[in-house]
Amino acid sequence: MLSQLGEGGMGAVYLCEHSVLGRRFAVKVLRAERAGDAELRERFRNEALAASRIGQENVVDVLDFGEEADGTLYYVMEALEGRSLGAVLREEGPLPVGRALGLLDHVCRALAAAHARGVVHRDVKPENVFVVRGPDGVERAKVLDFGISHVEQLGRTDRITRAGAIVGTPEYMAPEQAVGGPVDHRSDVYALGVLAYEMLTGALPIVGETAIATLVAHQTQAPEPPSRRRAGIPPEVDALVLRALAKQPEGRFASMLDFAAEVTRIRLSTLAGDYARPSSAAPTAPLRPARRP
After folding, report:
1. In terms of domains, do 131 and 242 share one?
2. In Å, what is the CA distance from 29 to each residue of 25, 49, 271?
């Protein structure tokens, strides 16, 4: 074990090095004293299962899962060098349109792969997206933390939360999710619309004075076009984001692949040349996964 990368109420994440192979990994641990909570155990298992079954380059790769004799649960994932998207936005503010669309495309493709395997994330937000730089120097996004995801397997659906329970982060929750209603892949489309809005403007499209007020506002308040918050955003990008933020699921993109296709069309037709330039700001910190270790 080399260092602790993060800590939360349920456990911690550690940077480790394999004693024989010399490779580094991140190990997420659910502490033994919390392992008696059946829902937390299932949520932890669900997170590892969901990420491991997707197997897509923009999703953090989970390599192993296990339990110690004292009941401590753990799983092993790839160690990433970079920053959370939340840290990028706090440190740099709103992103250039081309850069935002490039990262948006990566998250679309990660979630499309998840949806194809029966996984709905349900907590898409900046802290659950990690920004890394590949060997080619190009910036890439990785989706993390499937701890409250909705996972279908073996002809059934795992439900690790009680019926009618509201799970997620209020600022990013689709209207149907905010009232504890049924969710599907289009709820992730909405959350990704919120994330896109934040990347482009540095602000949330809808927010109330309290968490409850925010949940209510997502039911009733229409977001302003991003271009009203920040000049220079093309009309096509306004339309892209507002479609993702439609109140009714049927008004949104029918799938993440449809969302990604529109992102690609805009990048190629409207921003040719701009989107391809990688950011000069290189990620610097080691992996710090989402807020629920």
Report:
1. yes
2. 13, 15, 43
Q: For residue 171, what is the domain's CATH number?
A: 1.10.510.10
- Residue 92, domain extent: 82-269
Mean pLDDT of the chain: 83
Would you state the structure tokens that stand for residue 234, as one six-digit string?
């093309």
The amino acid at residue 284 is T
Q: List the catalytic residue out of 123, 136, 184, 238.
A: 123
Q: Which residues of 199-236 are buried (b: 16+ CB within 10 A; e: fewer)?
A: bbbeeebbbeeeeeebbbbbeeeebebbbebeeebeee
Is residue 60 domain-shared with residue 182, that is, in the same domain? no
Which of 32, 47, 78 is the last residue before a domain boundary? Answer: 78
Q: Does residue 285 lie within any of the structural domains?
A: no
pLDDT tens string 188-197: 999 999 999 9
Model pLDDT for residues 57-90, shown as the tens digit of each residue: 999 888 888 888 877 888 898 888 889 999 999 9
pTM over the 0.85 mark: no
Cα distance from N-terminal residue to C-terminal residue, the chain? 17
- Whole-angstrom distance, CA of residue 197 vs CA of residue 76: 33
Specify whether 238 is catalytic. Answer: no
With a CB cutoff of 8 Å and minimum separation 6, the contacts of 19 are: none
Can you give the pLDDT at residue 101? Answer: 96
- Give yes or no: residues 88 and 139 share one domain: yes
